[in-house]
Design brief:
Length: about 500
């Protein structure tokens, strides 16, 4: 059955579709970066509200600013922006069709359609899932990268911007000038203080061309912090085949685990859906939740994926089942990371480690080590190194964390232990590989990448542990090094 509006009255048995009238939906959200995660997470929460007859004026208009987004647009428009969500619960697979998205804007170099859509007063929230590395931050200190060519181009042509943030600035200018008021900008990416970061990016970009507009944005626009969590693998032929086996011909189905969490700072300048009625946590203390998730789950992914790539372990659940990698994950998080994580209501760091261990071990989730290891140049500084710095300052153990970084260096050398090649998997792969190959003979070359490590190379405890770990990995192999760490 080809998925589209006409098919909703005849979905296969056991697959529920929208109970609401999609023709009656009106848009309240533009979401930029409409990939699998958004459709399995933020859009799903809105779908839950719509199933209750709520939030029918909060439908989503999808948007993108990259050329590859056009392919997703074509797929989704061809099926009336419907999505088949397949929940991969080890106890049994289930599926539903969701429909809170009603349009997908054309992808244009000057983002004209996107700017017009965001300038519509009916749009009260602009959401973002543009990846951790997409916020134009200097990796050395996290400051706004005003010198980036994309940013310079937007500052020079503010009415025809090429970035999502330039488009947001242009739309806010139109709304200010028309007196229609601001919208809330809601980042849904895995960044500590993502609201603060997107505020800085938008305001500082605006200031490069219009200081008065920058001040107006800073005073009137809300940028709530948020924490998002759901494991959502990439879609390939096997996921499409899984949907077809359930009786739905969906060109872009989404598989996901049987767990979701969304924590949002309740700071919206232009109203919001009643998300708390769909299970979202609205709080003034997002930081504690996001810190636990980023320090344990997101960092834990890097603990697994880098060594998994070197040892040719294809999936994250395969890493968890590996006799050395799984115990390594639990020991590093439990002994070296958890002491620097604050509990949240109803959850201690050790409880959270047990929870994510079960989630990562789910054999139905074929989340590849390659996907999880992608963009280590953003993920290690964002997820792992904050704990390293706190541990160094506190004088707590860092041997396992140093080993995590050594495995990243070993992976970036570009070969696995079986001799196969690791294809480039980072925006800065060439420079990372150059440093990784040089570090085989001189390990501190790797820590000398100050844009990631800052002054950590000057800390003897961490530098010595890293040097010993990387040397041992090249001399003895990953398994032997893991066994030594687990035995001590």
């Amino acid at each position: 059955m080809k998925l589209n509006n006409a098919a909703l009255t005849n979905l296969p048995e056991g697959i529920e579709g929208p109970r609401y009238d999609r023709a009656a939906l009106t848009a309240g959200i533009v979401h930029i970066g409409l990939g699998n995660f958004h459709r399995a997470h933020q859009a799903w929460y809105l779908h839950r509200l719509m199933q209750q007859g709520r939030a029918l004026d909060w439908a989503i208009i999808g948007a993108g600013v990259r050329a590859p987004d056009a392919a997703m647009r074509d797929k989704l428009l061809a099926q009336d922006c419907l999505t088949t969500l397949i929940e991969l619960d080890p106890k049994g697979i289930s599926a539903e069709v969701t429909g809170p998205m009603i349009d997908f804007l054309p992808i244009e170099p000057d983002n004209a359609a996107l700017i017009r859509a965001m300038a519509d007063p009916a749009i009260r929230i602009v959401g973002l899932t543009v990846t951790e590395g997409g916020y134009y931050r200097d990796p050395s200190d996290g400051s706004f990268a005003a010198g980036h060519p994309d940013i310079r181009a937007d500052a020079a042509s503010p009415d025809a911007p090429g970035t999502a943030f330039g488009a947001i600035v242009a739309a806010l200018r139109l709304r200010r000038d028309a007196g229609t008021g601001p919208f809330t900008v809601l980042s849904c990416d895995n960044l500590q203080g993502n609201g603060h970061i997107v505020r800085s990016t938008v305001v500082e970009l605006a200031r490069l061309s219009d200081a008065e507009l920058a001040d107006w944005i800073d005073s009137n626009v809300s940028f709530p912090n948020s924490m998002v969590d759901c494991i959502v693998p990439a879609t390939g032929p096997s996921e499409i085949a899984r949907a077809q086996a359930l009786g739905v011909d969906d060109a872009a189905p989404v598989t996901h685990e049987n767990f979701r969490q969304w924590v949002i700072e309740d700071a919206f300048c232009a109203d919001r859906p009643p998300w708390e009625e769909a299970g979202v946590t609205l709080t003034d203390d997002v930081h504690t939740y996001e810190s636990m998730k980023l320090r344990l789950l997101n960092a834990g992914h890097q603990v697994l994926a880098n060594v998994g790539e070197v040892l040719s372990v294809e999936t994250i659940h395969g890493c968890m089942a590996h006799p050395q990698i799984g115990p390594f994950f639990r020991k590093v998080l439990g002994t070296e990371v958890a002491p620097h994580v604050t509990p949240v209501p109803g959850m201690t760091p050790q409880d959270y480690i047990a929870l994510i261990s079960d989630r990562f071990a789910n054999p139905e989730i074929r989340d590849t080590t390659r996907r999880v290891a992608f963009d280590g140049s953003s993920r290690h500084p964002g997820f792992v190194l904050p704990t390293v710095r706190e541990a160094v300052a506190a004088g707590t153990p860092v041997a396992g964390l140093a080993l995590v970084e050594a495995f990243w260096a070993r992976m970036c050398a570009g070969t696995r232990e079986d001799g196969s090649t690791i294809a480039p998997n980072d925006p800065y792969w060439d420079s990372l590989q150059e440093a990784a190959l040089a570090a085989r003979a001189a390990p501190l070359v790797w820590l000398g990448q100050a844009q990631y490590y800052g002054a950590l190379a000057e800390n003897a405890a961490f530098a010595d542990a890293f040097s010993a770990a990387l040397t041992a990995i090249w001399d003895k192999g990953c398994v032997a090094v893991l066994e030594d760490y687990l035995a001590n």
